[in-house]
């Protein structure tokens, strides 16, 4: 429960039995395999669809299929009747799972013609299409096909290998540093096969009025690969080659040998250009080499942008400037939307059954994603100065904007609302808390209560809040529309009766207490929400709730103990320190458990008193009496949880005027207890989870998620770092380091944000590069100078020393933590790339993926081109000149402005969640945990269907489903299904969370395990190498979890007979475990035991005996003589010692035999006389005696070993792997543990 968010745990109250029945019924629905009859004898294709899918979803599947991609303007007909695109497939009268539909070509409209041309452009661009609307470079990248190599490996039994095959680890250097130039895998195919030179809108557009009546829609000009320019007319009936030239306008069809026409532009071009026809087939093959999910666009989630990129070269495309017209039409009417009305209308959709709820959730997710995309582009235009303010005469911090029907404001305290709470710092926090409040209320989903579409965007140092517009807000005074809460922050407080009633339903789910506040005249008013929250009545009659930044109580213990300046600590920058909704839920559940136990004890006590008083009768009991006794046997079942009442006054300790009362005192005590619970209980439990590796974050983002899921605010990072250090636990060393690194990264982010604010765009790359040089490049250039320093901007004054001082001060100010002396410098020295990655991700920076020079002695030769060698004196002179030129190109600092490719907007949005999909997922996991595999699998499959329908294929929540199902099928030995789900999990995680996100990394590790189990070990090693390289970029070497990955690599290499590298990876895994647990931990005994077997397979029995001796000694000390591990280690130690003795004696025997042979050869030509003969005979006899003695010793040792000492390599591997707890068994156990841990994360 601790990991659940409020949206998951406070859904609308519905009947649980009805939910389960609805989910079960939905899971029983079969899929339809529809046959589509293509026009003009085009054959038939099969489409698999759910009966709940709309007809337009089936149409979309046809459009995206490689077999039918030539069609985009068509309808589907059943039994001669055209079907409505918006009706569900299952609602078609008479349709069956194996029915046939006819594809009927429609006449084009201008909109359909534009869609058709856009579809062709998308196909020609291939999987890596340049998105002109993207806010950054390379959105939603996936490297899976590139890492795998586009060639599927045939499953092989590894025991058939006689020698080790070449793998990606054959020449791998375990001591090498990660290389940023390898961030993008080699062989990434960006450029598809070229089919035409260009497709552009003709200069003859738009069609004249008289030709529009004849059906002309637009004119195109195409340059084919043959070099021919073709003018094409788009009409209502299709496309044809016309007679126009650049000087002559004649859109009528040609009637010569080059005449061609067709309903599809693709087919027309195939007729016109033979090279187009040939290359288009190659292009389709190129696209199909990628997984379907690598090609689909990300539409319902934010696409992930990599922080390090190798951008593709910019290409000439004459149609690219016309993208707006092709997408939205001549007047861009298609892009103008009433966002608020769409959002609220979708919330009002019916939700009486599962199908209606799924459809509603699907529409809500899509409209929220569209709104977020429009809001981000609008916010960037606002910051870039492309939008005129509504109030240009006021200060810039107070400016408000309306663009694309979205209201924009900046996250500054322009109206002094937060003057007493911390000014701009408090206003900045309030915007994030307001978004959190919107997300929480959306999760409760109370009918009749509306929130605004809200997105928070940080861009170029400015925080912009984008909101949908309340109808009528600009036509009336704000005070007149407020009907609930404080109107003007004090004198007037309103409380609408209906509003109060609706809010009561939300307050019950969120455990908010009703409380009294006083207005300026001392009049008391009852409120559920905070004093600052405002309820508005819109012109559309809907009730909107705004300013939700105080939907949770203040963290009073922090305010009283950590805000004031004391003990060398500066005053905390603001007083808007609130508790998180996850914490309030945790505390409520904690108190509920305690209450249930207390009530159960009371019931038990009363039952015992009654029994002691002799009030129970021994005669025959009625059914009612038996039921009462059953309750007494388990008193907790008799406790009614509905009787439990605990709620929180969100205005407690805020200084809001209210009359003193016992109720107020009680509510304040409740809030204080919750605050203490955070400091004294939750943080301690979190550290225990870290220590037990229940949670094991590998970067700052994972640490942040772990803290937030448990309700811990980031301001407690310093406290966590201190507690981790004070514990002296080795298992918390990486948490201590991560916490300090995260404080440094967040401080650098604030410094960059402040430096960028108000900076001209031309100076942004120089500013970022200079700060990165001061942070990371001080070893290469101790005194970096900004390129544009002469312009006098503040950022140019930074030096490495002053930047470190600023970071120290920022950490002390915001996290109440004193960084150790030299930590920042050491961090920048030891963790260069992990620190660079964290800073770029948190600040929205995209840099070029290249090997930066961090140390002066490591400077590589920088030249763009290697000149050919020239012989002779002239050649030497030329070579000298070349070296001088190269030296002249030496970088003055680690980073240059050209390395900073772009700044990304950092986006936060109030994403909605599907309650049914989440409930089915959790129910499936619970059933599996209880041993009901079939039921659990059915529920998870139904949850996956709900996720795909609600969120779409490309969404982080869907990836979670894919990963869970893959693990279940893997443990059920259904490896092919497991692999398919796991590949999907990898792609979705890469495209929505980042190619180097911890989620994608763990999915790659699991995919490697699944491939190995399926007999494709060479491919599995590719995935594991990719994951390990990213692991070192994310954290560096030595993370506790990396030992599992190293063990898995070692086991796979061992199965391929690469024993040398296998031992190396086992050794590194042992070193990692030693750092994490210490030398005396029992885990180290396991490592020594596994290493002993690995060295035995390698043939190094001396080292194997040494390792097994260490394992035996540790097992004996930690587990005792009777432990099965101790006995096994003892057995192995004896076997290995005997084998070592046998091999040593065998070596002596072979040495003696070699010496005898050598002696005989030397003396066979020296037999001259009797003395020489006697000497030779004596020597031969002595040699034979030595040989016999060595043979006897070898035979004795062989007898002791019991035939194992001289086993062949295959027999020795079989013997090792046959042991009940041998390396193979341990490998499986470690792989299973890794899989479970990745699944848990």
Can you characterise this structure?
The strands form six sheets. The chain has a five-stranded mixed sheet with strand order 2-1-5-3-4, covered by helices on one side. Strands 6-7-8-9-10 form a five-stranded antiparallel sheet, with helices on one face. With 1241 residues, it is α+β, with helices and mostly antiparallel strands. It contains 41 helices and 24 strands. The N terminus and C terminus are likely disordered.
- Count of DSSP-assigned helices: 41
Poorly predicted regions are 1-29, 860-888, 1168-1206, 1220-1241
Q: Helix coverage percent of residues? A: 40-55%
Radius of gyration: 36 Å
Strand order of the largest sheet: 2-1-5-3-4
The total count of strands amounts to 24
- Quote the average pLDDT: 85
The proportion of residues in beta strands is: 5-15%
Distance between the termini: 14 Å
**What about the largest sheet?**
5 strands, mixed
Classify the secondary structure makeup into a structural class.
Answer: alpha+beta
Anisotropy-based shape: globular
């Amino acid at each position: 429960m601790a990991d659940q968010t409020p949206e998951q745990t406070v859904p609308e109250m519905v009947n649980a039995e009805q939910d389960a029945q609805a989910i079960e019924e939905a899971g029983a629905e079969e899929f339809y395999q529809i046959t589509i009859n293509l026009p003009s004898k085009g054959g038939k294709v099969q489409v698999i669809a759910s009966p709940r899918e709309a007809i337009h979803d089936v149409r979309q599947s046809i459009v995206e299929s490689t077999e039918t991609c030539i069609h985009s303007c068509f309808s589907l007909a059943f039994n001669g009747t055209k079907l409505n695109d918006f009706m569900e497939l299952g609602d078609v009268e008479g349709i069956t799972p194996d029915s046939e539909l006819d594809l009927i070509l429609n006449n084009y409209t201008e909109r359909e013609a534009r869609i058709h041309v856009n579809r062709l452009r998308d196909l020609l661009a291939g999987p890596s299409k340049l998105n002109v609307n993207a806010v950054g470079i390379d959105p939603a990248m996936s490297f899976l096909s590139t890492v795998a190599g586009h060639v599927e490996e045939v499953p092989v039994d590894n025991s058939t290998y006689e020698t080790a095959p070449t793998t990606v680890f054959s020449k791998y250097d375990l001591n090498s540093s990660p290389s940023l130039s390898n961030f993008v895998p080699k062989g990434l195919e960006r450029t598809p096969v070229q089919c035409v030179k260009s497709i552009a809108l003709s200069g003859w557009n738009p069609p004249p009025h008289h030709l529009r009546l004849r059906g002309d829609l637009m004119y195109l000009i195409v340059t084919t690969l043959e070099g021919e320019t073709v003018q094409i007319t788009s009409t209502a009936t299709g496309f044809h080659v016309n007679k126009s030239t650049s000087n002559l306008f004649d859109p009528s069809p040609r009637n010569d040998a080059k005449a061609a026409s067709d309903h599809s532009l693709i087919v027309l071009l195939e007729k016109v250009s033979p090279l187009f026809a040939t290359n288009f087939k190659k292009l389709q093959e190129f696209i199909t080499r990628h997984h379907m999910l690598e090609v689909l666009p990300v539409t319902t989630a934010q696409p992930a942008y990599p922080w390090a990129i190798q951008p593709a070269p910019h290409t000439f495309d004459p149609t690219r400037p016309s993208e707006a017209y092709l997408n939205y039409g001549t007047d861009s009417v298609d892009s103008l939307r009433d966002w608020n009305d769409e959002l609220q209308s979708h919330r009002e959709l019916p939700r009486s059954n599962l199908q209606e709820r799924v459809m509603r959730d699907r529409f809500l997710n899509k409209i929220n994603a569209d709104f977020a995309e429009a809001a981000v582009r609008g916010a960037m235009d606002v910051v870039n100065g492309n939008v005129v303010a509504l109030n240009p005469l006021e200060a810039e911090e107070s400016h408000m904007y309306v663009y694309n029907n979205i209201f924009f404001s900046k996250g500054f305290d322009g109206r002094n609302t937060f003057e007493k709470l911390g000014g701009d710092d408090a206003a900045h926090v309030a915007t994030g808390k307001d978004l959190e409040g919107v997300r929480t209320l959306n999760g409760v989903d109370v009918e009749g209560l509306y929130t605004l579409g809200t997105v928070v965007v940080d861009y170029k140092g400015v925080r912009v809040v984008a909101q949908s517009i309340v109808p009528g807000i600009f036509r009336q005074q704000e005070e007149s529309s407020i009907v609930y809460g404080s109107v003007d922050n004090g004198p007037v407080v309103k409380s609408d009766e209906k509003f109060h009633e609706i809010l009561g339903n939300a307050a019950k789910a969120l455990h908010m207490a009703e409380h009294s506040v006083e207005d300026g005249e001392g009049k008391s008013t009852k409120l559920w929400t905070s004093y600052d929250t405002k309820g508005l009545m819109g012109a559309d009659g809907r009730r909107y709730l705004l300013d939700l930044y105080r939907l949770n109580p203040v963290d009073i213990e922090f305010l009283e103990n950590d805000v004031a300046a004391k003990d060398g600590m500066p005053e905390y920058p603001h007083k808007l320190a609130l508790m998180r909704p996850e914490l309030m839920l945790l505390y409520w559940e904690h108190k509920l458990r305690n209450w249930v136990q207390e009530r159960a004890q009371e019931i038990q006590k009363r039952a015992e008193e009654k029994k002691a008083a002799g009030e129970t009768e021994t005669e025959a009991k009625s059914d009612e009496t038996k039921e009462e006794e059953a309750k007494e046997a388990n008193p907790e079942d008799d406790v009614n949880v509905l009787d439990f009442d605990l709620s929180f006054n969100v205005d407690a300790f805020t200084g809001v005027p209210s009359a003193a009362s016992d109720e107020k005192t009680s509510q304040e005590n409740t809030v204080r207890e919750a605050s203490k619970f955070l400091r004294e209980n939750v943080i301690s439990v979190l550290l225990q989870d870290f220590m037990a590796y229940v949670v094991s974050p590998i970067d700052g983002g994972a640490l942040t998620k772990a803290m937030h899921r448990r309700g811990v605010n980031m301001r407690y990072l310093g406290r966590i770092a201190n507690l981790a250090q004070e514990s002296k636990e080795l298992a918390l060393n990486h948490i201590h380091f991560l916490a300090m690194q995260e404080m440094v990264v967040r401080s650098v982010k604030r410094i960059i944000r402040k430096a960028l604010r108000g900076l001209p765009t031309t100076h942004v790359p120089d500013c970022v590069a200079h700060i990165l040089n001061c942070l990371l490049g001080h070893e290469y250039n101790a005194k970096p100078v900004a390129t544009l320093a002469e312009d006098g901007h503040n950022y140019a004054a930074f030096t490495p020393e002053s930047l470190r001082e600023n970071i120290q001060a920022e950490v002390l100010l915001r996290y109440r933590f004193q960084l150790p002396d030299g930590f920042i410098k050491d961090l920048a020295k030891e963790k260069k790339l992990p620190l660079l990655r964290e800073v770029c991700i948190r600040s929205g920076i995209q840099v070029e993926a290249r090997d930066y020079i961090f140390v002066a002695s490591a400077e590589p030769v920088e030249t763009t081109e290697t000149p050919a060698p020239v012989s002779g004196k002239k050649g030497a002179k030329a070579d000298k000149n070349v070296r001088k030129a190269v030296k002249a190109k030496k970088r003055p600092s680690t980073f240059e402005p050209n390395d900073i490719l772009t700044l990304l907007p950092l986006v936060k949005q109030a994403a909605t969640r599907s309650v049914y999909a989440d409930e089915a997922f959790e129910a499936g996991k619970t059933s599996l945990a209880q041993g009901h595999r079939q039921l659990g699998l059915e529920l998870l499959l139904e949850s996956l269907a709900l996720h795909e329908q609600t969120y779409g294929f490309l969404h982080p929540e869907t990836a979670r489903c894919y990963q869970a199902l893959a693990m279940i099928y893997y443990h059920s030995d259904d490896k092919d299904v497991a692999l398919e789900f796991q590949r999907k999990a990898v792609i979705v995680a890469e495209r929505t969370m980042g190619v180097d996100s911890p989620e994608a990394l763990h999915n790659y590790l699991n995919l490697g395990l699944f491939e190995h189990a399926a007999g494709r070990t060479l491919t599995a090693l590719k995935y594991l190498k990719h994951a390990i390289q990213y692991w070192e970029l994310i954290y560096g070497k030595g993370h506790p979890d990396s030992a599992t990955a190293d063990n898995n690599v070692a086991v796979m290499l061992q199965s391929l007979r690469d024993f040398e590298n296998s031992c190396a990876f086992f050794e590194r895994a042992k070193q990692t475990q030693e750092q994490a647990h210490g030398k005396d931990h029992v885990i180290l005994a396991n490592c020594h035991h596994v290493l002993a077997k690995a060295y035995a397979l390698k043939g190094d029995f001396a080292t194997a005996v040494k390792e097994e001796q260490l394992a035996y000694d540790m097992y004996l000390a930690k587990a005792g003589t009777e432990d099965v591990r101790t006995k096994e280690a003892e057995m192995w130690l004896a076997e290995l010692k005997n084998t070592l003795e046998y091999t040593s004696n065998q070596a002596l025997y072979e040495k003696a035999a070699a010496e005898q042979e050598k002696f005989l050869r030397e003396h066979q030509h020296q037999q001259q006389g009797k003395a020489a003969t006697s000497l030779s005979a004596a020597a031969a006899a002595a040699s034979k005696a030595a040989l016999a003695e060595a043979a006897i010793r070898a035979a004795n040792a062989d007898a002791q070993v019991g035939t194992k000492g001289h086993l062949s390599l295959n027999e020795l591997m079989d013997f090792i792997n046959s042991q009940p707890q041998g390396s193979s068994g341990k490998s499986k156990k470690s792989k299973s543990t890794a899989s479970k841990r990745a699944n848990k994360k």
